[in-house]
């Protein structure tokens, strides 16, 4: 368990705070929706309501991460969140295809949703049209993925943030700043087993001490790619949810935990880890938990 | 002793080593015929492609790479592999004209990429999901029985020089120190 010498940024979006010293604010948990197939809004509304409810009960901040795969899904998905997510509650949009990113940003602007949007994500593949659109349609917050295809170490991650690792004209942090994105979360890019998968966790305190920015990752992706775990039946699902604990223990601020249906397990699990981190951080570093921290909820 | 970085890891199945066809599966559930030298799924347009190149050029018997199935949405990995074969990489190591999101080849030398482009012909079956048609194409390619390309090319994974110091047993990384309580500081401050 860590405390950082570098002053730590804490960004607010809606009622959620991202960042700060370990033990100060609970880990923000992103639950993913619409990863596969045609969006099933009925099931999604049930899962979203369940995640919001358990987040409220435990004091854990939860954010739906909306995966948008096709242009024709943009409007239905945005309408869905307008109907089912409390007003001002933040959400993230996860888009891979560069041309689709542009269309989603424009739709978010049209729906007047950019002030609640966490853009997932800005990375070294950023295109000129994407930059242009981000300038016009600027989301309140962005995830910067510190993926460096030539160097999977923490140094490689810092290199892309700092100078673009010769793949960009400048570092990703400067790119974000030039686009007017003020609130930045750094995703330390969890890779597959065999690709220095542990570096995603090891990079959390390194990047946090370097920049004082909120850090996190989708460490569960490593579990998803660990095919050998499938030999042990339900164990894989257990490891998948448990893997998120690494984020809290390594000083991280947020975790993208994968399918939203895992929320009923992931949310209390992370509340528990946040509590033990908070107890230590207060005892040794004098860091008091925030008003809505799970430690205050369960041990008022 | 085999080179410790070879073969490059990944999810693939090997067949007879003297087979002349390798099959890259995009979004498709298909098992190629037993004559195929190696087949597996491609997901990412960077590390995934690097693994294919490294493993294909290690076997000079492979002269054809069939890319089949629905394209990987967003990553456009199949089209990026085709672009690599057609155009190579630019000075920033980006695959020229690749449509994928992050099409960078950073762990292979230019020699390895040149060898890949020269060793194999690529068969563009992107969007083809008909297993009968794919198998028929593989059978046709097998029948051509081209000669081996020559010596294997063992692509050593390029690694940055290690900069991590283990002098401080409590340090997680060379940039930071962590005292016995857990306070993190930049090294040297």
List keywords for this structure.
heterodimer; A: 300 residues; alpha/beta; two-stranded antiparallel ribbon; 12 helices; 42% helix; B: 189 residues; 5-stranded mixed beta sheet; 4 helices; 16% strand; elongated; disordered N terminus
First and last CA, distance of chain B: 44 Å
Oligomer: heterodimer
Share of helix among residues of chain B?
10-25%
Count of strand segments of chain B: 7
As for the number of domains of chain A, it is 1
Question: What order do the SSEs of chain A take from the amino end to the carboxyl end, as H and E?
Answer: EEEEHEHEHEHEHHEHEHHHEHH
Work out the helicity level of chain A. 40-55%
What would you call the shape of chain A? globular
Description:
The complex is a heterodimer of chains A (300) and B (189). Chain A has helices spanning 41-58, 74-84, 98-110, 128-136, 154-162, 172-178, 199-211, 220-224, 235-242, 245-249, 263-285, 294-298, and strands at residues 3-4, 10-13, 16-19, 28-33, 62-67, 91-94, 117-122, 141-145, 183-187, 215-217, 254-259. With 300 residues, chain A is α/β, with parallel strands linked by helices. Chain A has an eight-stranded parallel beta barrel with strand order 4-5-6-7-8-9-10-11, surrounded by four helices. Chain A is globular. In chain A, 54% of the residues are buried. Chain B folds into two domains: 12-144; 159-189, no CATH class. The longest helix of chain B is centred in the C-terminal third of the chain and has 14 residues, at 131-144. Chain A binds chain B through residues 1-6, 69-70, 95-98, 100, 123-125, 147-151, 153-156, 158, 166-167, 191-192, 194-195, 202, 205-206, 208-210, 227, 251, 280, 284-285, and chain B through 9, 11, 46-47, 73-76, 92-94, 100-107, 158, 160, 163-164, 172-176, 178, 181-186, 189.
